[in-house]
Design a protein that fits this description.
Length: 372
Amino acid sequence: MNTWRIIALSLVALLLAACGTSATALPSPTPIPSPTALPSPTPVPVPTVPPPSPTPGLILPNTNLAALKGEIKIDGSSTVFPIAEQAAIAFNELAPEVTIRLGVSGTGGGFTRFCAGETDISNASRPIKQSEMETCAANGIVFVELPVAFDGLSVVVHPQNDWAQCLTVAELKRMWEPEAEGQITRWNQIRPEWPDAPLHLYGAGADSGTYDYFTSAIVGKEGVSRGDYTASEDDYLLAQDVAADRFGLGFFGYAYYVEYTDQLQAIAIDNGNGCVAPSETTIADGSYQPLSRPIFMYVRVDALERPEVRAFVDVYLRNGELFVNKARYIPLPAKAYELAARRVERRMTGSVFSGGSQVGLSIEQLLQLEDR
């Protein structure tokens, strides 16, 4: 749905090549007398210092990136998309002959394509499910699991909503559980003192890892919720919908809230220890619960044998903090990216998780799992 503009660079190259093909010869013009020759200019010395990286501050592998060719296919989570986009932009500057096809079909949709061998890398806002692992295995797809950042699912409302400053997990469940369908339709059904006004809900679709995680954390069972809400795999659309609806409430990744922070208001969540709003600090220290979570990319082992894929993953992990910060998520500690690089180097395959959403997992717990 958001297939990517990097492909345009390749198309431009093709068009330029096409322009160089032979055409029907035109009559030669009448020769113009040569002007009086001018003295040759003094040659400009060629600098011995290599030019800086197009993206300042990048840590690069010891690879001739400019000589790489090929194609890398990436799909999956809309939550992880902004990070992958930053990595792809930087890599394309360094390896312009590599075409990166970056799509967004949701975590579940991405794994469907990945396990069918259609993509090289799958972005995911939750760990791979057991059923997805079995599909991959049946198709001979072996993968390396790589955490890339931490996210805090943000529950947001319109800026003119001056009543819902904080919600308990129980109140969110009352809004989103299957029993609420067609029954909980007004704000004053959540708290009597709130307006007798329609409650319009917006959220991730069923193919989204964000939907899986949210329902697991809030409803208590993954993949189960009311069905009468506006669903989309595109977080940009959800943010725009809530920004245009005074009585709306939605949820999506933290980066999309930050991008629309002047048009949205984040609700603090009370998980039993008081109201905590999403922020870089509360997501990183684990106090924003139960909606803080790690997010991932999965890479096919056979794809890592291709130089362009291996180089892309190397650049991604060496500069994980930079790309994650640019995408407005919360970077993992440097040790986490080192452990991820080790998993790639040693081809440590499979998942460190039991499958599906891991509610309440802290950064420290993630590091312990990765360091096994």
